[in-house]
Structure formats: structure tokens, C-alpha cells
Amino acid sequence: MTQPSLGSCLSSLRESTPLIHCITNYVAMNSTANVLLAAEASPAMLHATQEVAEFTQLADALSVNIGTLSPPWVEAMQLATHTADTHATPWVLDPVAVGATRYRQTVCADLLAHRPSVIRGNASEILALNGLAHQGRGVDATAATEDALAAAMALAEQHRCVVAMTGERDLVTDGHQYYTINGGHPLMPRVTTLGCALSALVAAFVAATPGKPLLATSAAVASFALAGQRAGATAAGPGSFYVAFLDAVYQLTPDDLSHFAQHEVTHAA
Amino acid sequence: MTQPSLGSCLSSLRESTPLIHCITNYVAMNSTANVLLAAEASPAMLHATQEVAEFTQLADALSVNIGTLSPPWVEAMQLATHTADTHATPWVLDPVAVGATRYRQTVCADLLAHRPSVIRGNASEILALNGLAHQGRGVDATAATEDALAAAMALAEQHRCVVAMTGERDLVTDGHQYYTINGGHPLMPRVTTLGCALSALVAAFVAATPGKPLLATSAAVASFALAGQRAGATAAGPGSFYVAFLDAVYQLTPDDLSHFAQHEVTHAA
Amino acid sequence: MTQPSLGSCLSSLRESTPLIHCITNYVAMNSTANVLLAAEASPAMLHATQEVAEFTQLADALSVNIGTLSPPWVEAMQLATHTADTHATPWVLDPVAVGATRYRQTVCADLLAHRPSVIRGNASEILALNGLAHQGRGVDATAATEDALAAAMALAEQHRCVVAMTGERDLVTDGHQYYTINGGHPLMPRVTTLGCALSALVAAFVAATPGKPLLATSAAVASFALAGQRAGATAAGPGSFYVAFLDAVYQLTPDDLSHFAQHEVTHAA
């Protein structure tokens, strides 16, 4: 049996234009919506407890990012993730700076109980989420991606979900096998909230490729890596990089993605 | 008597640089401010109930967008729109995704009681607001603009306001006559919150051309259509489109707008 | 003894990549993060009272901007500025539109008690903060920068802090001497929240050059003026200006800054 390709996941996304309910931080809202629209998904940002569960039921997937969390937003995240879990709607957790404060750790522990389909973070966040608390000093990655592979696999196995750990090299694992994805560009971490936007794009890919969250997540991550590589080829700095990056996400074809050489699949021992 | 031209509305806007009080969603705040500044209006975003009424009294117009509404914001919207109504300050309602949840419908019904000068939405939102509830699945337009003309005219007549229904073709009506405006570009819906920013620009045009809300709204909509057309001529994707669009709004002249061929006025039977 | 140069402040910033805790308005969050990243500082946006004091203790500096203030945010600002004051962490106050409403005046008076290192505002805001209330009609500068020099010096002396008053010409003073900085471009006020982002960049420079807040603030302001000048040389409007500006901040070298001719230091009589 042939494994469907990364490119077929992008085809499915373009055909289904999934509606993605995003509960994300204030910094990332605009870029998240723009990345989803560039990829041809349909973003919706809303969080009032009066409507959030009603809307999650309409959505094809949910993306939750704790970046600028506060109690009313946490309440919305809990309602939405509970609804997603109950209705088998895929959802993605982005545990921004979870290692930085106790509040973030408590909130993430509560959200994990609603069984995310995917967790997307940098190495510091994945390590912190796996119990190695207070690794991160903020939103930057300070731990080497390779060192965190064991944490990512353990986290995926424990929560029966996919973990995408992004950095200079990206790793996507379900606890049994993992994709290694190269690409991207040194300017990517110099543009704010690209990682946050990737989490929402993961939700869109997972919604469009039901039953294959490992492949779908890898396709989202590879799309970012390839678009970043292309944007970096012409950018003069982070301003022009972001513009070129949105254009590159828009221009990406399924063939581009399937022929993207810089990824490989490894089966754990 | 000669009707003032669309271009004269832009001249008035540039001369008066009206102060526009915006109570809008988190996704749209930055782009809304940038579109207003590009057009030479002066944006101000604030929403605390401690100051909102005081500020609406200073402003030349108010723009209210319910995109990421929640109870404290709804309270601010009610105070501000009540103040605008009492002081005869023009205000614009943007009923984002009003068909998607009951909460949005209740909030919009309450706000309509404060008599907006203009309602700006896509066809799904205009249909939902006119009583055909639950048409929209989110923020996208899913109803054909033409099919919604009757709803737009009925809504305008019922609330004695102007209704701007935007999409591939834009319609602006006061319930008796309507402007049809073509232009724009297929990339426009691939950039987030341009519609939200248009609502605020409508407020600026209406403030600058007192007593002529139908004409002023049409001038704002035509400005967007023309700037979108020009931006689309050079853009490689949604990233470069947004940059070129802000530049085009900035470069637009009254003459450009007056000679913009793609609009016509129709008097209803 | 030779005074360290403006360029050496930029070198220090690049070497230390300070972590800047930003409590800022919704409009400015994305551009503030992007300007800090372009300059090689590390931004973090968070405001929940559950974690704000804990995080301010981790940060190298704090930047507080009242643009879209509301009671929960004001509470966070008070906790964070109190923490910064107690731990001798430098912090910057950006009193957006302080002259526009009584609420803003009360909030700023309370925050000033926590002894900011730097106040950054336009001339209207500096005048209003110095007791000449209700000068501003919003976020625009309406008072001539020169006329406000006396207010800036008085404010700096009263609060034993640095005051940066930006406009067509920028002034930075500690109450005893002042830097005059020219540069920038007429398109700068046509792009939203560049001033807000500058306040956060001031925090980054002050963190990276301990004990020299007047020099560090001047270096931040001069960086903006020089980057603005360069961006303006190629921009076709505010859209392309913002892109070129981020690139210019990224490309700026310490040598560029040290050789930037358009600044001078004046000792008050």
C-alpha cells in the first residue's frame, strides 16, 4: 500500500477549504488568519463563552494558542476543547511559553485532558510540557531540537496525539515514527507569530485529511519549511520575508510539496 | 442640480482628516488603522466603558465591528452607539458572521436600535441581519450578491440607513436607489479583514460628506474597488497584495475616483 | 572620558538580545513584536494578573502602553510596573492619548508612582502628562515639538526619568541635557503604531546599556529616525514603507548609527 503523499494533503485542503476556529493570542491573530487564507482555509476568530461551543460545532477543526491567555480566554479554551473532544473534531494545542510561569502549566495540564489531536511547539515548550518545567524563558526556543526528540515522542505516546516540534529542523511524531523536515530560513524566527500561524495551519491540514494526523501535520510543517525557503531566497529582511512568505504559501502546489526533498520518515526502534 | 462626484467625497476626506472612533475586532485593528491612515483619516481604538462615551463625543464618526465580541466589548458598543445616536454622530455597523450564532444575532438586534447610518457586510451577513438567520458559516460570503439585493434594500428601508453589501460586485443602497460597483480583485478575500477596514473607511467618508451617506458610502466602496484593482495588477499573492493595496489607497486621487468607470446608479421601481 | 557612542548601544543590544515584557495595546502588538525581533531583541506579550509579576521578574525590561486600556489591563500594568520598580528593572511608559479622557489621566498618574525609567510620547501627550491636560484629540501629535521642550524637561526632572518626545524632530532629555534627532520620513505617521513599537525598542536599548538611559533612549530614537529615512527612500506608500522599515531596522549596523549625522547634544543653561 502506498502512503498518500504530502502533496495530496495540500490538494485535500484546497478542495475542502476547511473552517478553522482559532482561539489564539492577540499578537498572532492577523498573521494566523492571513496564513490560513493564503493556504485556502477559512479562519474564524471568536472566544465569547456565550457562543464558543456553538461555533466549535460548526468548525472543521479548532486551534488553541495560549500566548496572551487570561481567565475569560481560558474558560473559552476549555469550553471549545471540551466540545471538540466530545464531537471528535480535531484540535491543535500551541502551548506558548508553557515553561515560563506556573499559570501556563496549570492551564495546559487542564487542556490536555480534552485530548488534543496535535501539539505544536518549539523544543523548550515540548520539554516543559513533558514535565521538565521552567526550561523556557519566553517564546524562544533555547533547547536543541535533537535533545528534545525523546520528550516529543514520550509526550505523543502519553497523550496519544501527534507532536510537532519546530525549530531549525522540524520533527513530527506520533510516538512510534517521526518525520524529520528541513528547510525554512534563518529569517523565520525574526518574524513574529509564524509558529502560532503554523499551529492553525496544522489544524487545517488535519481537518482536510481525516484519520491521518501524522501525515497531515507533516504536510503542514513541510509547507511552512518550503515556503520559508522560497521566501528567504528573495527577502532583504524580516519585513520583505513575511510578504514573500504569504505569497509563497499561496503559490505552493501539491507537486511542489510532494517533490520537496528535505524530509524523511524514521521508524523508532 | 449636479450630484457631487465620488471624487469630491475623497477631497473632503483629505481636507477634514476626520477622527474615527473604532471599536473593532482584534484581527482587524491593525489593518483598519492602516487603511484609515493611508486614506488620511485619523483612527482611534478604545473601548473601556470608563471612557468610551466621552471619546465618541470627540470623534467625527464611529465604526463598530462585532468580529471578536464578548460582554465587556458589547457593553462598550452599546454605550458608544447610544452616544453616537444621541449626538447625531454618524456610525457604521459591521455585523461580522451575524448568522453564525444566536449571541451575534441578539447583539446586532440591540445595536440596530441605536440607528446606524450605514450597515456594511457581505451577502450572508445582510441576509442574516434581514431575518434570514443562520445563512453564514462564518466570515465568508456564501450567498450570491445579486440574490441578496432585495434583502439589502429591505434592510435599508426598515432601518432608514444605507446598506453596503460587498462581494465580487458591490451594492450600496438607501432602500430607494442603489449604486453597483465593480472592480476589486480575486486576491481581496484572501487577505484578512479588508472588509472590516472598509467599514471604518465608510465611517470616515460619511463623516467627511455630511448629509450624503449614500454617496459617501459609495465613494468609500469605490475607493476600495479601485485600489484593489490596482494592487491586483502587480501582486504575486496575498502578501504583496496587501502592501500594494495600502499604497494604492494612499495614492488614490479624487480624479481617479471620479473617472472610475465601473459604477452605476439605479433607481428602484 | 569619551561618551559611548549611539552605535555601541546597538552593539550591546545585539549581543544581549534582551527579553522585553510588553503590555501594549491590541493595535500595536504585532508591529511591536516585529520591530523588536528585527532589532534582535526578544519580545514577550502577556498580561494575566495570575502571571504578570512572575514574568516581569524574568524580563530584562518592561514596556507599558495604555492605548486600548481597560480595568483588567490596568491592573496588570500596576502589578508589572510595581514589580519592575521593586526589582530595579527598567521600564518605559507610553501614555497614548493621555489628554483625551479623564480615565487615561488617572491611570497614568497611578503608573508614574512606580517610577518609569523613560516616558515616550508625542508632544500632545507630553504636554498633557505635564499637567496641561486635554491637549490631544486622540493619538496624533497636534502640538509643535519645539513648544513642548519645556514640558518634556520639566517632566523628566519631576520624575527623575528620561523623556523622549517624538515627532518631525525628536527630543530626548533627562531634564538637564537633551538630544535633538532629525531624520525619519513623512510616511512614518501614516503607518499605525510605529511610535508604540519605538517605546518597546527604547526598553530594549535601555536594558542593553545599563546605567545610561539618556544615551540608550537616544540610540533607540536615532535607530528609528535612520531606518525611517532609509525606508522612505524607496517606499511608494505606507504599505511598502512598513516593509522597508522592518528591513532597515534589521539591516542597521552600529557603524551606521554612530555615523548618523542628524543628532546633537545640548546642555541646558
From TrEMBL, chains A, B, C:
Tagged with keyword Mitochondrion: no
Residues the record lists as binding substrate: 45
Family to which the UniProt record says this protein belongs: Belongs to the Thz kinase family.
Cited Gene3D superfamilies: 3.40.1190.20
Annotated gene: thiM
SUPFAM superfamilies: Ribokinase-like
Enzyme class: transferase
GO molecular function per UniProt: hydroxyethylthiazole kinase activity
Pfam family, one: HK
EC number in record: 2.7.1.50
Pathway it works in: Cofactor biosynthesis; thiamine diphosphate biosynthesis; 4-methyl-5-(2-phosphoethyl)-thiazole from 5-(2-hydroxyethyl)-4-methylthiazole: step 1/1
Sequence positions that bind ATP: 120, 166
Catalytic activity of the protein: 5-(2-hydroxyethyl)-4-methylthiazole + ATP = 4-methyl-5-(2-phosphooxyethyl)-thiazole + ADP + H(+)
Cofactor section: Mg(2+)
Keyword ATP-binding: yes
Free-text function comment from the UniProt entry: Catalyzes the phosphorylation of the hydroxyl group of 4-methyl-5-beta-hydroxyethylthiazole (THZ).
Keywords: ATP-binding, Kinase, Magnesium, Metal-binding, Nucleotide-binding, Thiamine biosynthesis, Transferase
Name of this protein: Hydroxyethylthiazole kinase
